[in-house]
Structure formats: C-alpha cells, structure tokens
Amino acid sequence: MHIVIVNRWPRFSDGVRWDNELTRYEEFIDHDVHQVSYVVDPLGAEGVLADPAKIAAQVQVDDVNDFEALRDAVAEITRRVGPVDQLVALSEFTLEIAARVRRDLGIPGPTPDEVAVYRDKVRMKEILALKGVRVPRFESCESPEAAVEFARATGYPVILKPVDGAASIGVHRVEDEQELTALLPTLDLSRYEIEEFVTGRVFHIDGYADDHAEIGFQVVSRYLNDCLAFGQGAPLGSVVLRQSELRDRVEAFSRECVAALGVRSTPFHLEIFVTPADELVFLEIGGRVGGGEVPHLLNKLFGVNLFEVWLRAVGGRPTGITPKTHDLSGGWLVVPKPADLPARVTKAVSLRESVPTIWRELLPPVGEVLQPGGSYDALHSGRFILLHEDEAQVEADIHRIIDTFEFEATRI
C-alpha cells in the first residue's frame, strides 16, 4: 500500500515542549511494509523523523493548506512512486482540502461530502436536527438582511462563526443589532453561519469512532471558561469527569451524535452544552484529535494515544483500543499570551512546588519574545497539565494556578 502523509506540524527535541510528540508516523505506520511518502511545509518537514532511506518520496510546498499546491505535490509523488492508496491529513485545517485532492486525483478515502459532516458547521447541524438531536437554532448567512432577520427572531446575543473554522478563529458573539449591522459588511458571509446563543456549561468529548460509527473509547471533560473567551484573553482549561449520571448521559448523547452523522474511522472532538435545565445540546464536532493538551492528558491517564489509534488503522493494523479500566481525572490549563505583542517575557514563575498536581508545565523563559499567532499549542504565558484522581481537586488547582500565576512581559 502506498500511503501519503500530509504534515504541517513540527516535533520538538529540546525535552521541554511536548507539542506533536504523539504523532510518531515512523512508529505507527510500518515503513518497511508500506510505501510511505510525505507532503510537508517548512514547519512540517521538522516533524518527519522517519529514516530517509525508508521514505518513498517527500515533497515540500509553501503551504499544505493551499489546495493546488497539495494536489500538485500528490500528483508528483504519484508520478515518482505510483498510485496512492491512502492520503492522510491529521490537521483540522487540512481535512477538507485533502478530501478535494482525493476527489480530483481518484484516491480512495473520505470524500468532501463525507468530511463535511465534521467540517461544515451548517451541514452537521442540518443532519442532526433531522435526526431529532437538539442543536442551536442556526442559519447560513445568505445576506446581511437575512442574518439581521434571524437575530431579530432568535434574540440577542447571537453567534457568528465560519462554517469551516476551528479554535474559535473568526467567531463573534454579537450583543445587539447595531453591533451586528456594523460587523456583517466586514465578513465573507459565504463562509459564515449565524446561530442561537445557548446558555450553559460546555463539555468536550474526545474519542475514536470505528468503521461502523461505534465508539470504543471516549473521555468526557468540562471546560473551565470557553474557547471564545480564550481568544479574548481569558485562560482556558478543562477537567476530566469521573463516573456519574451526567457523564453516562453525555456519553450516550455522544454515541447518538456520532452514529447520526456517520462519523467513521476517525478520532473525534465533540463539544456540547449542558443547559441550566440539564438539557444536552450539540455544539459542534471535529473529525480529528482534540487540540492542545487533550491528547497528552488522555494518553497519560488511559494509555490511549488517539494519533496512534488513527495511524494504525490507516496502515491496516489493529487499533489497540481496550476498554478503560481506571476511573481517573486530570485537567489542563492554558494561560494565553498577552494581547499586546510582540512582547519580551520578564517574569514567569513556576508553580510546580506550590501545586503538586502539576504533571507538566511549559513556561516561556525570561527573555523569550512572544509573537502573535498560533493556537492552543503555541508558546503561551503558561501551559499546565494536572493529574489527580479527584476531579474537584483538579478543578480547584486549576483555579489556584489562574489566581496565583506570576507572569510579566514588556511590549517591544
């Protein structure tokens, strides 16, 4: 089998940063059994650590998320090595582009329509609503007039978001009509939807759906703050739920959503609301491994590396998933970079001694210059992963970090 991997992530070897350490292509796909080729961008080239002698071909482009560049690179690999049996992309931002390349070049695998159920936020809600699953009221932004009319009928606040976005990039909470009418002309409405604002706690569920859209492994976590607030400068974290009636309900709701959407042969990251009336409401789903600290925490707690599960399945090997035997908790926290960037770090004080539940802590060294850009796995003011069997202790310690973390930086 000829497998082409699209990689846009570096891997760090400094023993400090852990981003993407779980995406070990050379370990999880047998390069002796299969022909394995890579398409990378400059950063992605740093994440390919396979023996060069075992790589069938590697093509570097400026941006793997440029459709034409990716298609041409895969076509070049096909000419050099032979027909492609699997085109694999692990990044949220590359899933739909890779599906279009498959369609254009006749490569087997998920099609654009199949990928849309976990990339197009309108499509996923349309399907679930038809299946009777509670979703926020929503509508495509066909015109400014239609968006205003939706907001008037639904009531404020409303949420505007890209239909194919991730990490809350480009998401807006709009409080009134004056704000909405000012915002709409600044957006590419062909890429946006408008939806009801749902009040409630937000949970994320991370797991793997097999070839039959059945879930063999999933973990439920509750956000502390939310992703939209993170984009506005607030810390973001979550805590893993231990067994409870609520967790059982959320897991059942997760299975219902995944089955209704037909999400197959992929990890998933599902987000839902639990309202003050205890109603479960779908928010959105991604057909990929959860970002930031999520995969590292789950691998530590339960011994399941969702990247490994995914890549083993690509190579036709058993996924290795076994039922969870431990009822454990843990959590993570990201304290974002200052708003005024670039900035040079002048103070970042470790909390390892005062918060013993911290398993991993990533602080920028004094003198480091923090730059704009990056998502949850960028170098932020502070990143923490916590371990403890008591979820209440984990949550208390996350709030303790938020309250006591000492960090200073100077704009340059």
Give an account of the 3D structure.
- The chain has 412 residues and is of the alpha+beta class.
- It has 13 helices and 19 strands.
- The strands form four sheets. An eight-stranded antiparallel beta sheet has the order 13-12-9-10-11-14-18-16, sandwiched between helices.
- The longest helix is centred in the middle third of the chain and has 17 residues, at 245-261.
- The model has no long low-confidence stretch (mean pLDDT 94).
Ranges where pLDDT stays below 50 over 5 or more residues in a row are none
Structural class computed from helices and strand pairing: alpha+beta
How big is the Rg?
A: 21 Å
Principal-axes shape call? globular
> How much is the average pLDDT?
94
Side by side, the strands of the main sheet go: 13-12-9-10-11-14-18-16
Can you summarize the main beta sheet? 8 strands, antiparallel
Distance between the termini: 51 Å
Query: Care to count the β-strands?
Result: 19
Oligomer: single chain
Q: Helix tally?
A: 13
List the helices and strands and how they pair.
Elements: E1 2-7, H1 25-28, E2 35-40, H2 42-45, E3 57-60, H3 67-81, E4 86-89, H4 95-105, H5 112-116, H6 121-130, E5 138-140, H7 144-154, E6 158-162, E7 172-174, H8 177-183, E8 192-196, E9 201-209, E10 215-224, H9 227-231, E11 236-240, H10 245-261, E12 266-274, E13 280-286, H11 294-302, H12 306-314, E14 330-335, E15 343-348, E16 358-362, E17 369-370, E18 382-387, H13 391-404, E19 407-411
Parallel strand pairs: 1-2, 1-4, 2-3
Antiparallel strand pairs: 5-8, 6-7, 6-8, 9-10, 9-12, 10-11, 11-14, 12-13, 14-18, 15-17, 15-19, 16-18
Helix pairs in contact: 3-4
